[in-house]
């Protein structure tokens, strides 16, 4: 599937479509949602850093993270930061922005970022390790 958008220029709006990306779609059941990856934003850059890690006990692991986002474009944007592969019994603590629990092992932060700016979020994950 190829994705196009109309030009922002009023004069070109009816004349030109701008190609923004493409992806393949596998067999999909009727009325099901699909996800398309049509490319990466090269002018929005993110970096995740592990700030600290501790084990208050044999069963508890604590990790604190910081995510820094830079928007080097001339348009504001909303960046979806997905944190996945969370295992065992986990809890998000001390988050600086709200999150949505997508499924049993993934959360998503929605971060608005203004033109030519930088923003950061912080969060901690407490994991209670299940015995074997």
Strand order of the largest sheet: 3-4-9-6
Total beta-strand segments: 9
- Low-confidence stretches at least 5 residues in length (pLDDT < 50)? none
Shape: flat
CATH topology of the largest domain: Immunoglobulin-like
What fraction strand?
over 45%
Helical amount among residues, as a percent range? under 10%
Series of H and E elements: EEEEEEEEE
CATH architecture of the largest domain: Sandwich
Determine the structural class based on helices, strands and strand pairing: mainly beta
CATH class of the largest domain: Mainly Beta
Number of helices: 0
As for the number of domains, it is 2
How far from one another are the termini?
A: 46 Å
Mean pLDDT across every amino acid position: 85
Question: What about the largest sheet?
Answer: 4 strands, antiparallel
Q: Radius of gyration from the CA trace?
A: 20 Å
Short description:
With 132 residues, the protein is an all-beta fold. It has strands spanning 2-6, 17-22, 44-57, 60-71, 77-83, 89-93, 99-103, 106-113, 117-128. Strand 3 and strand 4 form a beta hairpin.
List the helices and strands and how they pair.
Elements: E1 2-6, E2 17-22, E3 44-57, E4 60-71, E5 77-83, E6 89-93, E7 99-103, E8 106-113, E9 117-128
Antiparallel strand pairs: 1-2, 3-4, 4-9, 5-8, 6-9, 7-8
